[in-house]
Structure formats: C-alpha cells, structure tokens
Description:
The structure holds two protein chains of two kinds.
Chain A: E1 8-11, H1 15-25, E2 29-32, H2 38-43, E3 51-54, E4 64-67, E5 70-74, H3 79-84, H4 86-91, H5 93-99, H6 105-110, H7 113-119, H8 125-132, E6 136-141, E7 144-149, E8 154-156, E9 159-160, E10 167-174, E11 179-187, E12 194-205, E13 208-217, H9 227-233, H10 240-253, H11 264-286
Helix pairs in contact in A: 9-10, 10-11
Chain B: E1 2-7, E2 10-15, H1 22-29, E3 48-51, E4 54-57, E5 70-72, H2 85-92, H3 102-115, H4 121-127, H5 138-161
Parallel strand pairs in B: 1-5
Antiparallel strand pairs in B: 1-2, 3-4, 3-5
Amino acid sequence: MQVPAPFEYERAGSVDEAIALLTRHGSEARLVAGGHSLLPMMKLRLARPETLIDINGLTDLDYIRLDGDELAIGAMTRHAAVLDSPLLAEHYRIFAEAERVIADPLVRNRGTVGGSLCQADPSEDLSAVFSALRGRAVIRSASGTRSVDLRDFHVGPYETAVAGAEMLVEVRVPIRARTGSAYEKVERRAGDWSIAAAGTFVQVEGDTIADVGIGLTAVGAAHFTCVEAEDLLRGGPATKEAVAAAAEVCAASCNPTVDQRGPEDYKRHLVGVLVARALNRSIAGANGGTS
Amino acid sequence: MHVTVTVNGAERHADTEPRLLLVHFLRNTLGLTGTHWGCDTSNCGACTVWLDGVAVKSCTTLAAMADGHDVRTVEGLEVDGVLDAVQQGFIEEHGLQCGFCTTGMMMTARALLDRDPDPDEGTIREAISGNLCRCTGYENIVRAVRWAATHEAAARAADHQEVPV
C-alpha cells in the first residue's frame, strides 16, 4: 500500500489565507491543488512536506477569461476546463492539442494549471505550451503581486521562481493576430509523460514569419524552449525549408537524457520531427487553413 | 482530524489521519468496498468515484479533501432497488469479465452520460481512457455504455409522451 508520510492538513479559504498559512508553517509546507503530481510523489517519499495546505476551496482562481489583449487563466483552473475552453480554442489550438494528451480525463478533472506549472516536472506539457506562447506568471505574496516571464519561471527540475510564502495565482498569455499554434507529442502509451513534445505558435505577415514561439518538453531544453531556432525563423520566410532548418537547430541544441524512454539520438530525431510538424501546422493555421 | 463527508446522500463522520486516501476511507472506514483499490498510482481508474459530481481517482485524493463535500460511489448508482441504466447495460452486454475495473468504469460512464446522453463510440473510448480493463473487454464495455444511452433515450421519450392530463 502506498501511503504518504504523516503531515498536518490545513485548508485555505482565500489566497491571503493560503499565504498566511505558508508563512506560519515555513519551508516544510506545500500547497496542494489537484494533488495528482504531489500526492504520488508523497507516496514515494520523493516529497515529504510536514504541512499540506489544501487550496481546492479557492474557486475564485478557477477561470479562463479575456482581459484586455491577454488571456488570463486562474491557477485553480482544471485541465478539463482548458481542454474544453472555446475562448482558448479561438485563439490558440495549442491548448486543446496539449491537454488532449495530458494524462487521462479523470486526472484532467482534478489536476490544475497552477499545480502542473508549480510541480515543474521537466517533462510537463503545459510548461512547454506557456514557454512557446511566452506567457507570464502572476505570483502573490503578503506584500503584493509580481509577474514573472514563464521562461524564467522554472529554475530547475521541480523548482520554480515561486518563493516560500508566495503563490502562483494566474497565468497570462498575449493574444496575437494572424497566429496559428499546434502541439505535437510522442509518448510510450496513451496518457504517459512525453518522450519528447513540441508546441509552437507562428504569427505571419504575408509570407513572412512576424513572430514565433517554440516550446519543448522532456528533452532538457533550457527554459523549455529554443531561442536560437526562434531567432532563425523570426522575420524570415514562412517556408518548409526555413522550418526544417529551425527544427534541426532544436534537435541539435536540446539536451535529452538517456532513460527508459529512449536513447539520445532517438530523442533528438523526435524533437526535429515534432518541431517541424508543429511549426508547419502553425503556419497553416495562421494562414487560415486547418492547422 | 474529524471529517464529515456526504456519501451517496448520507452524511458520514469519522476521525481519520490527514494522510488517509479517499479510497481507503471509503473501503476501510465506511465499508463501501464497491470502490476498488487498484494501481495506487492514478493510472488504472478502478478507484473512480465522484467528488462534487466530478469523476476522480480516489487513490490520489485525500479523505480530508472530501471533508464537507459530496461523494458518490458505485453503491449510490442503484436507487430503490432499481439498477442504473449503466449497471443494467454492463449486464446486458457482458461488460465485465473479472469485474475489477467495472465499478470505476461505471462511475466514469455515468458521468459521461450525464454530460453527453448520446455519445458515439469514439467519445466513449476517450471518456473511459483513464479506466484500464486488463481483461481487454473494451468492446463490450463500449456496448454496455451505448446500451445505457439508448435505453435512457427510450425512457425519456416514453416519459415525454405521457403528458399529464
């Protein structure tokens, strides 16, 4: 039987209360939302918080809405809501495409956007999505609110920019005109973590790529992205050849580890194929085709 | 800690450790063994129950999280001695062999039909993709869910025709 080690259980009724509880219980306290990453790690003793602060009551952080020229997603938004959101689908297909291959429907009913990002698993899918879209994380503390580029959010495996007595409350993504986006993932079996995955958006201006974002997960890419490939594409022609060159850069510059999911050369090959597919579909989507 | 959980409409009280998982609370504390304890890693879905009307895996939910909330288990499907259409469908279409995954399958299927009363095969397969059947009986499970959908639609149509005078 897998059971977590003993811990104290607290419940927060508001963000302020959650932060106050984090402050009171110190560094051995953890927030728990859906718990679908944290509880399995606690069962395996890979995580052993002394206090769990349950934030499932913070339903005011469960929203997906338009806020000016940005999309705002509350930290307590469940994966299922992201998958089903017409607003997100209207602007970025990458969300539904990524969510469809995150775990399974039951896990998506419970797991949250904020929880996934704060767990900061190096193979997590939404981290690649938000890195591709160059989203921003809104983080609250007792002294106020600050905002962090999602590309600076992950400090390392299972480590984020969220400090001890802080809480991720929202993720924001700019809306871009004439944009297509896509997510491509290969896993060993349905619902598994990625062997490799790539998410992209492309904004076109005529035949030119005006802006582009590339997200990579599970392959040791710094900040879940490949800036070099983005720079190569930005301002250039939206052609298959340009895409192929950028995909090659992604494959060469990521840093996959050899594990039970495959050898290094295989993973690099996958990155190249998946980035190219995602970029080509993003371009097609930006040009009004079915991405 | 003391928890109060409404299980299948009845308020249940217990003193538990915060680390107690909902699946063990249901099975060991309350004796509701219809909810099965399977992989323990949120993969297999045998432990699927509803929490506030949403199908979740109870091996990855704390009993403490259900404190003050509403849980429905397979024991709550049958009402006044009448099986739920999903349960009847599993009987009619031989939707089980060993039966281990069945209760979780049925809780997921009930949630699906409440949301989408007429799902096609692809929708059913996607919906139950978090519930694993090691007898590989998916064909019959899909038929069982379709049986329930068809019979509930027929029952609704019959109800609709019985216009009160």
